[in-house]
Amino acid sequence: MALLSSSTTKLATSGLSSKLAAPIRPSGPARAVRVPRATQEASSVTGLVFDPANAVKIELTTVDKTPPSESLGRVAFDPECEAAINEQINVEYNVSYVYHALHCFFDRDNVGLPGFAKFFKAASDEERDHAHLLMSYQNKRGGRVQLKSIVMPEMEFNHPEKGEALFAMELALSLEKLNFQKLRELHEVADKCGDAPMADFVEGDLLADQVNSVKSSAELVSQLRRVGKGLGVYHIDKQLQ
């Protein structure tokens, strides 16, 4: 009886020891154990994608060496893009000047077409607003605005065959189509220089409006060709008021 008790005791102790030695497994799903990065060896993957302390050193040197006369915010802005923007500013101002001359012509008492005067005044303001947008963007990118000379426009728009209204609107349509081509050339410069922000600016803020301007001018040319030089011009002028 004592021998049996001793054997039983040994078996019980052995079973208890094996249970204590066995790993404890959670009853729920297994969870990944996160190893701190500090414990990883330097030669292994550190997990760092971007180290700002080292990467910013070049830019810090550039900012430190920038003289007070130069822009601190200029980054990846090609001089060719800067020059092209200044050229387009001059285009916008010249077109605006022609439209202002057209406004003054139709606003005369001996011409008496206030609707066309209003139309060309709005067109002049729009082109000047485009010039302001370009100047603001030039400054934003760290460029220098260079204003150039504006050519004095014609001030008389009488035409013996077409009449002043059709002649002026055909001129406006030609100017809008020319400006559209100039904006496309500006966009091509941005593409060539790999300047995605500038290309996006030209597309979203300038080219979209220019397409609408070409369309509206073309419609007015078609209407004026249909009605001729007489009473139809008066009715179209009323619509433009």
Kindly summarize this structure in a few lines.
The chain is an all-alpha fold and 241 residues long. Helices cover 66% and strands 0% of the residues.
Quick tags:
241 residues, mainly alpha, 8 helices, 66% helix
Please count the helical segments. 8
- SSE arrangement, N to C: HHHHHHHH
Strand content of the residues, in percent?
under 5%
Give helix % range: 55-70%
Let me know the largest β-sheet.
Answer: none
Return the average pLDDT rounded to an integer: 86
Terminal-residue CA separation:
123 Å
Task: Choose one word for the global shape.
Answer: elongated
The secondary structure category is mainly alpha
Number of strands: 0
Cα Rg:
38 Å
Residue runs with pLDDT of under 50 for 5 or more positions = 1-21
Protein topology:
Elements: H1 2-21, H2 52-55, H3 57-65, H4 79-106, H5 114-140, H6 164-192, H7 196-227, H8 231-240
Helix pairs in contact: 4-5, 4-6, 5-8, 6-7
3D structure, described in words:
The protein is built from eight helices and no strands. The chain is elongated, with a radius of gyration of 38 Å. The N terminus is likely disordered. It is an all-alpha fold. Helices cover 66% and strands 0% of the residues.
